[in-house]
User: What shape does this take?
Amino acid sequence: MTDVRRNTVWSATVLLCLVAVLLTPRLAFAAPPPPQPTLSLDLCDPAQNTFTVDINNPYFPLPIDRVWAYSGKEQGENIGLQITVLNETETFKFGGGQTVTTRVVEEREWADTTADGVFDPLNEQLIEVSRNYYAQTQDNTETPQNEGGTVCYFGENVDIFENGGVSHEGAWRADGRKGLPGTAPGIFMPAEPQRGMTFQQEVAEGVAQDLATITNVGKTTITVRDFNPLDGSTGTKVYEQGTGLIQDGPLRLISVTG
Assistant: This one.
């Protein structure tokens, strides 16, 4: 009798667990809720701020001709990333008559078969090339002498190379010239990063809506957790004072020139 009862109880318990799992699959795999922004997008509103392309934010400096090279593995594949500050600008015109000039920054990602962070166009395949648009605020209330203001993100052009074609998924402009509703400049890097700060980096409804939270502030580095509410994906980036991005997920900085 004892053995039969134990077997009966065990079978009933297993059955209940299986039923619970079958009835609640969405709870087990649901995307985490998006963090709530603590910084207002007013920090990058063209109607309330003036901007410069001379970007000297300590954690995200963008001097012309600076090149960062990264390498690492993603899903078992060697990936290279090169970020270049171009001697180019892009102008954005907003409905209120405001005009903002931005700095153009190119990002080039490829299958880095040699794992050296140097793109070989003859033997390595491009994955994505994007042109990103940034400007820094010149608000006297942010930092003394207008040094290292908030870096604002005004959008990007995207070329994704796949299946023999080119996709432009994720491209957006803060002035809505792509025909997208609900666009505005996002906050890419605060003037004075503090732990717990959450801010919207991309502002293009249904296209690009990344949020970022500063999860750690060290003596010379900060760690930022990215969240994409469109698909629930997350990522981690580390920035260093005077250098900028030193780690992007599994990709690590291997050289800085210029």
